[in-house]
Q: What sequence folds into this?
């Protein structure tokens, strides 16, 4: 079965054209590079840990999609909020959750960002605006719209971001959420990471229209399609959308065409729904590799500088994994803590 | 103390809380300028405007998910479902998000959201507008459940509900909305987890819920003429449940009847009975009896509808039977 590869607009020279538009200084570009490398290296570390039995349950990696989290979150403040998906390690890292807290959470330890109650699919760090990854496809769209409603009532200029995949775009939550955000001009950025498969179901088999962004027209909000493997293109489009939201101009639907190059979840059979050729073609479009080439060609950074960034990230990730492994398990005696906030007869079999 | 209806008392409280706290807002269908299908927000739109009395599209899942996101980010939504049956379209959001975000965030997010709706059998509203559903919410960790039966409790429990940091299902029985009673003015807070002993008695304890409270009180009043002394307990909140007040009463009476219009299997009565047996088996002089709504969708035709819920005759008979044990 041939799956249309494509979906990457202006593929040849996309990085160059975005680079021509970018007004980013070297430090900012290096920061984007560092974020992407950190996401990649953390994921690779978690994959090994999963294979060694240190990560329990499911582990959905963000490998191949790093440019999107990095490019969007670069525009966010700690008081802005992100609601994410089952494939959310990258969003948490880019939003400022420390690698060691994410690793410890996946290891099931007390020092994890959700104190061991969440795991890969429930990463929470409200202190930096990371409002949770999720095991259910769709709700993040509604939660982000609701956060936008709060920000409006509170008269702040904070922005809410929902990251979700193409799979969510056929779910009612998408349609209900962007409709309400649009009609009430809420300060929300809806980021669809169209990696072309909802779990293992190809998008073109469940949507007549190949572009998620086209659905925005039905609800009267602006939308943009970008090459999700081009960090500068994502960064530029997200910047405009965040500015619009912060300035009271309402929500935007940003569709980033991309691809996950690992299996849906670690340990799952990754065959029968896509070809090795397709996967390999997308590996060639690796957003990190592309950005590295661009930085070198544009003489924005030297090879030694980029190597140095990678070495620093490697050390950070090694420390994070060691921290996770050495961290204590949560205390089972505290397992019902936080079911309720308010005082009262919270325990027991009823209430 | 003023005399007012149940719905007016709850509305007075909502008005007070919206005036006190600008983060309180309401979402629902027709709750804006129209004032709510059941008059739950009548007159408030003029005072607080469209942002805080937000009419929404018919998308329960959508606006419940939104209000959950709002509650997690510092505001205090009151979702007005009109008929509580409509909450079913939002169950995935409620169970997986609303009820779990506090826990999954290890208490760093709070969830101050009130889910209010009118419920219950008795107005030929047919099966999609007559349900109750509260046992489902009692079963799930994360929710509080309030079922007030008097105007004073409608006001006092709603005030507590709005101020709690936890999700609260706040249910208003359609047959009680226009009943009148005296209501304290201003700061009237009824705590959750404290039952109201609606009538003192010595021969038998009847725990009644929602619309079954006035019905059971009517029966108890009638039976007093026959020298039968029934204690009637209204739990007021089902999560948390004030089991201690029930146990104390059963300790004195030795007999327990539970009257509830919702279904028997895995229901509130089953839970109360199990807890009483667990903790006070030796206090019981007779088996525990339950009266429930029949295990069927609610029919439309008035005589069919009336046949579904426990009648005063059935309650009286159950009491006599229990006393004969």
A:
């Amino acid at each position: 079965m041939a799956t249309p590869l494509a979906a990457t607009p202006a593929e040849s020279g996309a990085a160059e054209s975005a680079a021509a538009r970018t007004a980013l200084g070297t430090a900012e570009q290096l920061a984007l590079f560092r974020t992407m490398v950190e996401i990649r290296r953390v994921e690779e570390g978690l994959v090994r840990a999963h294979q060694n039995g240190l990560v329990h349950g499911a582990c959905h990696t963000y490998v191949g999609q790093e440019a999107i989290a990095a490019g969007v979150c670069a525009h966010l403040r700690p008081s802005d909020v992100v609601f994410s998906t089952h494939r959310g390690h990258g969003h948490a890292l880019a939003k400022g959750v420390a690698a060691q807290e994410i690793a410890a959470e996946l290891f099931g330890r007390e020092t994890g960002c959700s104190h061991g109650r969440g795991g890969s699919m429930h990463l929470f760090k409200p202190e930096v605006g990371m409002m949770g990854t999720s095991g259910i496809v769709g709700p993040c769209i509604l939660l982000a719209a609701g956060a936008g409603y709060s920000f409006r009532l509170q008269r702040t200029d904070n922005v809410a971001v929902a990251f979700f995949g193409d799979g969510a775009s056929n779910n009612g939550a998408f349609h209900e959420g962007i409709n309400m955000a649009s009609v009430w001009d809420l300060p929300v950025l809806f980021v669809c990471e169209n990696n072309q498969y909802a779990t293992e179901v190809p998008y073109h088999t469940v949507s007549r229209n190949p572009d998620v962004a086209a659905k925005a027209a039905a609800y009267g909000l602006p939308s943009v399609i970008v090459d999700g493997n081009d960090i500068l293109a994502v960064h530029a489009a997200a910047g405009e959308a965040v500015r619009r939201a912060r300035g009271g101009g309402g929500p935007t639907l940003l569709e980033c065409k991309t691809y996950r190059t690992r299996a849906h979840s670690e340990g799952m059979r990754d065959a029968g729904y896509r070809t090795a050729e397709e996967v390999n073609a997308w590996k060639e479009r690796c957003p990190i590799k592309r950005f590295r080439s661009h930085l070198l060609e544009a003489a924005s950074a030297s090879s030694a500088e980029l190597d140095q960034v990678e070495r620093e990230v490697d050390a950070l990730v090694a420390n994070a994994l060691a921290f996770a492994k050495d961290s204590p398990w949560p205390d089972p005696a505290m397992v019902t803590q936080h079911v309720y906030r308010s005082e009262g007869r919270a325990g027991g079999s009823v209430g | 103390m003023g005399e007012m209806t149940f719905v007016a008392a709850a509305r007075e409280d909502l008005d007070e809380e919206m005036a006190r706290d600008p983060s309180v807002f309401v979402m629902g269908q027709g709750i804006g300028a129209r004032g709510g299908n059941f008059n739950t927000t009548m007159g408030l739109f003029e005072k607080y405007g469209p942002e805080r009395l937000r009419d929404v599209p018919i998308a329960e899942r959508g606006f419940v998910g939104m209000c959950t996101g709002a509650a997690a980010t510092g505001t205090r939504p009151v979702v007005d479902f009109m008929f509580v049956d409509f909450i079913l379209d939002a169950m995935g959001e409620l169970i997986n998000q609303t009820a779990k975000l506090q826990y999954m965030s290890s208490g760093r997010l709070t969830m101050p959201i009130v889910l209010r709706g009118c419920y219950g059998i008795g107005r030929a509203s047919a099966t999609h507008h007559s349900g109750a559903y509260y046992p489902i919410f009692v079963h799930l960790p994360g929710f509080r459940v309030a079922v007030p039966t008097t105007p004073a409790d409608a006001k006092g429990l709603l005030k507590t509900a709005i101020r709690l940091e936890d999700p609260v299902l706040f249910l208003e029985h359609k047959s009680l909305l226009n009943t009148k009673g005296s209501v304290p003015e201003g700061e009237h807070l009824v705590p959750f987890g404290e039952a109201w002993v609606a009538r003192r008695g010595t021969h038998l304890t009847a725990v009644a819920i929602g619309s079954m409270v006035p019905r059971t009180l009517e029966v108890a009043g009638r039976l007093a003429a026959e020298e039968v002394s029934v204690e009637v307990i209204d739990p007021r909140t089902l999560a948390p449940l004030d089991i201690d007040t029930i146990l104390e009463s059963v300790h004195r009476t030795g007999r327990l009847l539970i009257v509830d219009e919702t279904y028997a299997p895995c229901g509130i009565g089953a839970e109360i009975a199990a807890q009483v047996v667990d903790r006070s088996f030796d206090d019981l002089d007779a088996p525990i009896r339950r009266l429930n709504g029949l295990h069927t969708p609610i029919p439309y035709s008035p005589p069919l509808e009336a046949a579904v819920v426990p009648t005063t005759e059935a309650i009286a008979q159950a009491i006599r039977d229990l006393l004969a044990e």
In short: Residues 1-16, 345-351 of chain A have pLDDT under 50 and may be disordered. Residues 26-51 of chain A form the longest helix (26 residues).
